[in-house]
Amino acid sequence: MGNLQYFSVFLVVLLCNCEAKKHVSSSESLSRKYIKHKWMEKLEDSRLLSSISIPGTHQSSKHLKTSKPRFQSWVLHNQLDAGVRFFELSVSSNTIKYDGSEGVQESETLSYVLKTLLTFLAKQDSETVLLRITPDEGAVAQVTEKLNRKKSEFWESEEIPTLGQVRGKIVLIQSSTLKLGLPIQITELDGDAKETQMRQNIKLASENCDREMRLSYTGAKGESEDPLEIAKTVNKPVDDYLLDLKGDTSRPNCVGIIAMDFPGPKVIETIINFNGKLEQGAKLVDDTSSKDDVALPNSTPGGEKTGGDDGGGEDTHHEGDEHTHHEGDEHTHHEGDEHTHHEGDEHTHHEGDEHTHHEGDDHTHHEGDEHTHHEGDDHTHHQGR
User: What is the value of pTM for the model shown?
Assistant: First the structure.
């Protein structure tokens, strides 16, 4: 094989890998060009929530490297930034638990996750977030009590609202153990013919989403399936099928919620753009390829940081952000930032930077860290790292 043929094969492989990254978020970071903070802003207030096509994540909080299995690579805040608006959590008491490698367990509190979502909505009040919580049987009362403390922040009715009624709020979706919020019809992929099932499930959702909430899971089901491999198999066909539907003269008005493992920016964008006007080619958000590719590193949940596809980018931090920094990162910090620094970081500090934690702060702690804590702190602990 000549040099030209080798180069051609290399180019094809490179293009395939780049295309796969757009449909599968195997990297922990998110590029600035994929941020979609306000995509619901262009939708009419009178639109029923069920008639909006919504990108979502399956097992949304299982993004930690030690989670076995791992279903997402992006932390919740990066998922929000990418345009994801449906999340699901499995909860034991106030704690979302992950079984880590070698028996190590990591956890975050439900309070912390709710704060992340509500902080985002306070800044982006054109949006709404849908949340499906499945507590253990023994934790239902405690979870219900916690939600009731912030009752005004949630939509708990069984009546499908208009978007105008729930902008800036969390819409609760009923689960098998928590019957607060909207009832929903759910389909999953089961067995080997996943692409065929996916098309059938989305078509069924498109035929009913004008009048009822529909949720199509496209992720792994059962312990024998690898979520990342399922995402590599299914996410691009989801994108292709939605583009086919949108280009059809008899295209449906909506496809409901599509909850995925490791969704990439391209398939998220396609779901969002399904909400555009019915004319072929209409879009709510710009093509991902049309913006400057400024890469930003990943963040812990609750900060306003995003990251580049391969990390190592430049970070922009805002007042009150909570950050974890890694070797080689270049950072610009602003007043009120809270920081954890690692060897090799290059930092520009501004007047008022704070490294001591105060009452009400949310913190991410690592074993061996030295911290000053004050009454009322809400902490997320990581062991064995």
Answer: 0.71
